[in-house]
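Field notebook, page 391. I keep forgetting to write these up properly, so this time I am using the form the group agreed on. The chain and the ligand, 2,5-dideoxy-2,5-imino-D-glucitol, are recorded exactly as supplied. Prediction of the bound pose follows.
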Amino acid sequence: MTDRYAPKPEDRFTFGLWTVGNPGRDPFGPSVRPTQDPCDLVRKLGEIGAWGVNLHDNDLIPFDATASQRDRIVSDFQAACEESGIVVPMATTNLFSHPIFKDGAFTANDPKVRAFALRKTMDAIDLGIELGAKTYVFWGGREGTEVEACRDPRSAIKRIRDGMNFLCEYVKDQGYDLRFALEAKPNEPRGDIYLPTTGHMLHFIETLDHSEMVGVNPEVAHETMAGLSFVHGVGQAMEAGKLFHIDLNSQKIGRYDQDFRFGAEDPKQALLLIRLLEGTGGGERWQGSRHFDAHAHRTEDVEGVWDFARGCMRTYNILKERAHAFDADPEVKEMIAEVVDSTIDPLLKDYSPEKVEALRSLAIDPDAIGATGLGWERLDQLLMEHLLGTR
Ligand code: DIG
Ligand code: MN
Ligand code: MN
């Protein structure tokens, strides 16, 4: 019997090489799993039903590889992707591992570091294009401070803007079909990271020379670390037409960046997010990759990593079924139907002096309205019943 939750290509599930290849190292202990060959990872991703794989430049190409080594690695990787039916929708640059970036990449005080970051990113963009990527992520993991006096935060923002404007021009000059997606995180590995939330990124994007080619890559764990609603952040990005990519995982609030298996800690929030992405509650289905930027616990061996990967995709599809059922529920539809008032609605936008008069003459009884219950407790219980499979 076919498993209705099994991943299909049209689900567009993707994983980073760094996720399923995570060796289980953490700040308090060494790797617990062997380093995996990227081509083996791709073949296994194909086996378990993933659609695509994403990568940082150095997930595939060693930092000190020669040009000929690079070309052979790329050729072997492309062959593995081809034979596995795996695409590469997104690429990004590792601007956080090598010690040169220990005080930032685009924001570093040393112009030589900023120059090196630009050069490395251009090379990594070229690699992403060669592999077929259409989205390029920027996560500024080292763009931040512990010692705040080391640089003016205004200088840091200006340096990031200069770097983004330069790289947008590079992409346009090369004729690449590529969009940028900026990923926010409030802290870790730096004490404080610049542009810490998706909201900060959405504003920053509007200050760029080519803002039309730049969007956001919100991550569940990162917005949650900042104490924010991920659903609201994604909703704002979608409403602005700027949800260019998404990093799915799960997170307990008030912890380090846990990057747990999707839905593991927060199935209700995951269900509410899936309603947005799948459009069950309104709007179109979002067409981007369902990218899992997550990794297995350090307790796991290699087989446990693939249990983790299967779990990410399966949980998504189970919750997708619950989301469809919830938004098809007649009682839910009635409770959340848009309230339309043909007299008042036109008065609420598109100012005119006549509308001022009309608003002031409306008969509104604030006490009567204030005394009316909304019924959201019942609605939230219906969500829980669908989530728990009892309705
Ligand atoms: C961490 O959340 C970051 C890096 O793993 C990568 O640069 C980006 C792409 O998903 N997410
Ligand atoms: Mn991420
Ligand atoms: Mn993370």
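OBSERVATIONS:
- Residues 330-387 form one domain.
- The mean pLDDT is 98.
FOLLOW-UP: compare against the apo run.
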